[in-house]
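Here we describe the complex-level prediction in full. Unlike the single-chain runs in Section 2.1, the two entities below were treated as one system.
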Amino acid sequence: MAENVIHPLFDPCDRGKTASPAELAAIFRPSAIAVVGASGRPGSVGQSVFSNILYGGFAGTIYPVNLTAHSINGVRAYRSLAEIPDPVDLAVLIVPAAATPAMAREAAAKGVKGLIVISAGFRETGPAGAEIERELQTVCHEHGMRLIGPNCLGVINTDPEVRLNASFARRRALPGHIAFISQSGALCTAVLDFAAKRNMGFSKFISVGNKADVGELALIRYLHEDPQTRVIMMYVEELRHGFEFIETVREITGGDRPTPILAIKSGRTAAGAKAASSHTGSLAGSEEVYNALFQQAGIFRVQTIEELFDYAIAFGNQPLPRGNRIAIVTNAGGPGIMATDVTIQTGLRLAPFEETTTAALRSHLPAAANIANPVDVIGDARMDRYRDALEAVLADGNVDGVIFILTPQSMTEIEATARVIPDLARQSGKPVIASFMGLMDVSPGVEILEANRIPHYHFPETAARAMAALYQYSRWITREHPEAGPLPVDRPRVRRVIETALAAGRHYLGEAEGNEILAAYGFPVLPARLATSAAEAAAAVAALGTCAFKIVSPQIVHKTEAGGVRTGIATPEEAAATYEEMVARVRANRPDAAITGVYAQQMARSGMEVILGINRDKVFGPLLMFGLGGIFVEVLKDVSFRLAPIRRNGARFLVDSIKARPMLTGARGLPPRDVDELERCLLRLSALAVDHPEIAELDINPLFVHEAGAGCSVADCRLLLDPGRACPKPPD
Amino acid sequence: MAENVIHPLFDPCDRGKTASPAELAAIFRPSAIAVVGASGRPGSVGQSVFSNILYGGFAGTIYPVNLTAHSINGVRAYRSLAEIPDPVDLAVLIVPAAATPAMAREAAAKGVKGLIVISAGFRETGPAGAEIERELQTVCHEHGMRLIGPNCLGVINTDPEVRLNASFARRRALPGHIAFISQSGALCTAVLDFAAKRNMGFSKFISVGNKADVGELALIRYLHEDPQTRVIMMYVEELRHGFEFIETVREITGGDRPTPILAIKSGRTAAGAKAASSHTGSLAGSEEVYNALFQQAGIFRVQTIEELFDYAIAFGNQPLPRGNRIAIVTNAGGPGIMATDVTIQTGLRLAPFEETTTAALRSHLPAAANIANPVDVIGDARMDRYRDALEAVLADGNVDGVIFILTPQSMTEIEATARVIPDLARQSGKPVIASFMGLMDVSPGVEILEANRIPHYHFPETAARAMAALYQYSRWITREHPEAGPLPVDRPRVRRVIETALAAGRHYLGEAEGNEILAAYGFPVLPARLATSAAEAAAAVAALGTCAFKIVSPQIVHKTEAGGVRTGIATPEEAAATYEEMVARVRANRPDAAITGVYAQQMARSGMEVILGINRDKVFGPLLMFGLGGIFVEVLKDVSFRLAPIRRNGARFLVDSIKARPMLTGARGLPPRDVDELERCLLRLSALAVDHPEIAELDINPLFVHEAGAGCSVADCRLLLDPGRACPKPPD
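The structure predicted for the assembly as a whole is:
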């Protein structure tokens, strides 16, 4: 189980993602299970899995398969799958890795539809193990069996109609409404231990192991349909799906009947630096890709295992707030201030109370109490004062949720106070989150809260953070979906340019071809001509007005260094002279280069310089980048990312997420810029990236964004083609 | 105890900060205590405090004072302090607030040297209570008594020679090496509860309440001398000391025998926006002031109560790492990756192992284990494998500390593994921090770790963060102290300029006077002259070379808007014409303004624009600001702060902490700038702020920083004087 030794995937387009809920039913709701490798030897995994199923109260029939034993734990055993007299839907394999492909074949012959392979010794151990895993995968594919694992802890389903614990976990999962998907088996054992102590219940508990077949996407789809599951927790080391993951999961997290998903992604710093020639490539690490993926899919990313628990408890047990106006009720000033600090920092705010609320608080609380928000019922408060205050603030139309803080002081009625919260919370339909501070004195109160589905945290800051997470998710599910409007594109023209270049063995495309491609997708490209003589150069300036000249040569990528760039050429005479000079200078500097001519392009009006870029991740496909030009990108790394395709919201996100955004919207007396047209350019960029997988990298640097209503101009661009890109094209 | 109602301080320069360790001994190590208001009534505070002292095993003599009872809990009671037949050093008062001044007088008459006033009803309740507090304070001052409180939970000293629990806490503090100072009494009760569960021991436990006399500074000084105290934890809502706090505490946290201090400061978002006319003022919130204060004093600021515990446990029990090279030992890949992520993010790095270490690991661990860092002993590891791996990595000269992770798997020997860690850690002299994941299965192991002073955290991320905190502190105590070099100043000249302006009723000073002030402190001010006629303007340009002209008028602050700024005036003829034009234009625009003339100043060579500023906090005194000009300050708020006075390190910190620092050190092919001279300018700014408290605000905007070796130039400045500034001047 050395999980940190990662070998290359052998099926990045794995069909496991397509496992349907009906197919997965063989794994989660089997009628009959064969446990191949079941054992009576104490401490063995075969014993552990078998007894977990048997004593876990499985509602179907269990058949141990063991070469030598007549029975195991009193249950009649069979020497092989074939010997079992009845049909079997699920086989759990706990046999040496090398034996699993043959065993999978036997299972298929028996009519088994689902496999859980607990055994280790596959891809995680090196090339030989990877070969066995590939064979196992092939058998499953050929026979239409679905597979969880190999190298996993197993699967738990607490549904009272099923009661399946097909795992070797030391602890049981309590029934509940949280589903957990984990890529680390070791973490599963720790999670069950934490959960037991915090009274957290699970609907399903799935250790996915090496994900040779079934992966996160299929499981998320299944769990979304599962009536027991209210929230999904994931521990992820790597995902293998790009746009189809986003498209499916965003409907699940943000559709009509949303299921929130919380994920922790580890291995953040493990990814080595990538060699990349473009700005976009050098700034786009795997962290940026995963952040984009989670954001676009509406998955709430957390940073630590502790947060995963903290937020799952809130999402699984409380309604979402309709807004960010929070009331705090406390019996101590200090903790109230702590909660207020976090409340404000996380985008929540303190609700301003209605007059009736203030009047109610004044009538119920002593004069020394603080009846403004945060409400301080003060240290000698008994249950009644807490109850009256909570009732008053929950009834307030300005209050979207309540953070309830208790410190154990001498007069405090810990249990009685805990008992009044759940009913008041439920009746109000608003989220209430509690912090009873301490670990020992308050514990009877905490048990009452947890048993009654009031999320509880030892520290008021954590309670405030959990409330903020609920609010953030409520904003995701209620977000607007603005229309992008029609953006006509000319695909065949781009295809011709790309094919011509690739046929000539050219991978770097400069401005001439780059601009043709961009123009075909509606980008505001400046008028330009290729001049192959001084006379043509003069004619170009006569026709286009003041121009920039850039040398055109297949051998020259860095034109400035070669002396091949001049700007501000205003007259035909200047144009002719500049042409001759430039060609002579470049010829002297680069005698190796064949000079095609000079690219004469109309000078752009001034504008705010921004960079638009495409980079391609080998798993997730095209990544879009946006940033302000110059120091903002190069020194401050102030850039934003999304995976393509994006919609209007995605384009807006790209623009809104950079810190220097005020530069576009009118900071320091600067004019507001044409952000509308900028967003359309980002949508065009997305379409280009999706339609033409051969575009490996693209930098538009800079794009000038003119004043509001005045559009944008592409001032320079560079493309890198890669004919080897075989990523599947997403649907239109 | 409505602690969030804060009334104004009545003694910002309180003498409580000067309480000497000898004076505080009356409170922490009394021989005889009188408990005034001791009571036999169950549930009363008087009963609670008295029985805590009595049953806490106090090593001296206790005298209950009660008007009616003959004895309390079997101890002979007295009707008044005067009646007690023996000397008393400490009196604990639990009587109505209004009675405390008289009682304090009685105590003084009895020869009492220390008071703990538990009672509430003082400043926290409003003006009437504040008046009582002031009277109590006065009595103490007059009679040389030291006072803790009022409105506090009390004081605990676990020293076995004293064993004093003069508090009404529900729980006792275990003896240990952490001192806790809290401004919230309610938080004290919660902290004792958490600590009991985590086996945390305290040396002293002090609820400071309203801090009418003794505050944090005196306590920190006392605790630094206390042999029982190894680390100080503080919960702070407000501090009342500025530079003297920094100067004293930096020696305590970073001197020869350092005591680490961890602090949480709440009320971060409570401070309202300040109206301020300068850049510095508008950017300097109370958060920035406290951050500067803590950083300069070497106090480790944490964000949550949980972090306060987490780090105190590490600081109190482990040595500091000599460097940032960490080894991780784990039995599961996932948690190892999580710890690695946090390790890298927090400035630590994974140690590259020596060859002997790799060889030792290879010989002790199975083939499937990972012998590179993070070391994975894999899931079936028993105690011996863990022991051998830990021993090997601790012996490695490249390893500065170890993070030890255990997940409870079927073969794991939890207790045996816990038992081998402490000795190996101690022998190595390196810090070892553990995470045994889970809450139930691992708890016997956790108890062994805690009993043997190995810091333990449920989550590996927290363990990594605690190690990073130790490393960060080790950098503070080993930091260098570069010399600033001599920076001559002409104080009397500045004093004359300020006094002249104030005598004329002028508070805003423009460039002419501002430059004189700056020049007197050695700032690189550009040569300039005041021209009061076209002829003088021409002469100025003839003498100085190309100039900028700015109108001089006491009525005009915004010169550009009035048409009173022109740059690049190169010839005497242009100068004369510009003078006439400018005066005419300003006269037309601002007929109300009296025009003194035109300030002709040599144009600065180009350079990177930076802003230097002074703002003044009413408690903490002068605050220095630094940032890059333009968008960096106005849009990105990329600025840094320090409280004056600063030394060379402080100047360097100001420059190094801005995100745009690469702009000064040669980003994007820009030349490196004269950061040395910039740092000297910041030291001059500090001297100016300290020497002249009448300077309420100062912006140097911009200062041009030229290329390395070429110095800086002040291009513009503005001052605001405030004659009412009565902050005490710090010593030279």
